[in-house]
Task: inverse folding
DNA sequence: TCGATTCCATAACGACCGGTATATAATGAC
DNA sequence: GTCATTATATACCGGTCGTTATGGAATCGA
């Protein structure tokens, strides 16, 4: 009942040392969850990809759900870093462009699964996965709130038409982002999504 | 090894008559698949919703995968009828508006599950569900081809800017449609999606 | 009434699920 | 060396999965 997280500093070197790198194992687990979703990823899939046995997994990460949450944390920290960058862009249009370009890059990377882990996992969790769904929805709402605030500021800056509802514009942008994620998992190429982005940008509201 | 479909005309009235309506049972199964996806819907869920036992289900519909395909056929025939109407609209803008308004209505209906059955099921199928995924992707591609053809005609009609790529515009529209489906399953209200539609329409390219 | 036929209900099948008990191997502390 | 401690490896747990075998109930043509 201790040291579930991977970032426990003092390194208690007593007892047999573990033979795997928790960091690499968590990355492998992230790849499986990303590709298959929470329910679709079985413990056999996870242990095979991580290169460890089930008792090692349970000792290091708790259980399947806790492992998923740690993988989701890493996903947001590493693969969704562009969203935090995007909010800092100077104009509403630049914010949207950064969001969309970053999403396309993340969703069609050749060394990662296609699509968005949140979309895959939130759609693919049944029964007890309500905790998963609630967690993802909560993250989504906080991201949405930040984007709405950014668009409101943009409107005050004269950066967006004053008759445009920032909340609706945020939903519009999220719809495009998550729609591209669905398209990416369905086989759309990077060029396909770049076309979507360029069209969306060409229509972006001005002044 | 016969009469898997529900539409076998001659009604062989020999033997004990079945005690349930295959049509209503299929509708109930559709609701379960729509809400939970292919993998997420268990046979126990299905039989409970359909009000029949497992042997009856297997006798009438084959197996789980064949039942899903029949449910998907009905979904496309009934719930996606607006897409065929949309393609007949006179202008590209009217086509897009019909698509989006129909999608919002279908995805936020109070008497049906939220979201899009294709998005839910394609995201949520693991392992042997590749057949499911392939089927949905094939349907999506044929729909896409029809929409691209419609937009190409619109461009020839002078209904769209001549420098606009019809394929990219089709992907853009699909991204919005499927993105709204993801939002709908995540709790977005009908008003939220109406806002997305009105923004997308306000930006729609002219002449 | 008598098969023949078709459907319903119960129970069972093997396979896999997430999770764990048990035993063994490898280290540090003493 | 010896013990406590921690990790690994194997096997197993109860439960659920999709699927099916079995037996009884209901309708037909004869």
Result:
């Amino acid at each position: 009942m201790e040291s579930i997280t991977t970032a426990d500093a003092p390194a208690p070197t007593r007892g047999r040392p573990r033979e795997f790198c928790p960091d690499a194992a968590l990355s492998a687990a992230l790849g499986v969850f990303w590709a298959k979703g929470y329910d679709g990823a079985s413990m056999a899939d996870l242990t095979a990809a991580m290169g460890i046995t089930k008792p090692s997994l349970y000792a290091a990460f708790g259980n399947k759900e806790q492992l998923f949450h740690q993988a989701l944390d890493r996903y947001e920290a590493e693969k969704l870093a562009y969203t935090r960058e995007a909010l800092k862009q100077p104009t509403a249009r630049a914010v949207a462009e950064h969001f969309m370009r970053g999403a396309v890059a993340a969703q069609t990377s050749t060394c990662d699964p296609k699509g968005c882990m949140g979309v895959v996992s939130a759609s693919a969790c049944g029964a007890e996965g309500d905790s998963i769904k609630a967690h993802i929805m909560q993250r989504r709402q906080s991201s949405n709130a930040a984007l709405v605030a950014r668009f409101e500021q943009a409107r005050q800056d004269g950066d967006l038409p004053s008759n445009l509802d920032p909340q609706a514009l945020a939903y519009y942008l999220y719809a495009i982002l998550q729609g591209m994620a669905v398209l990416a998992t369905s086989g759309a190429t990077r060029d396909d999504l770049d076309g979507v982005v360029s069209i969306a940008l060409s229509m972006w509201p001005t002044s």
Confidence is low (pLDDT under 50) at residues 1-10 of chain A. Residues 130-156 of chain A form the longest helix (27 residues). Chain A touches chain B through 49 residues (CB under 8 Å).
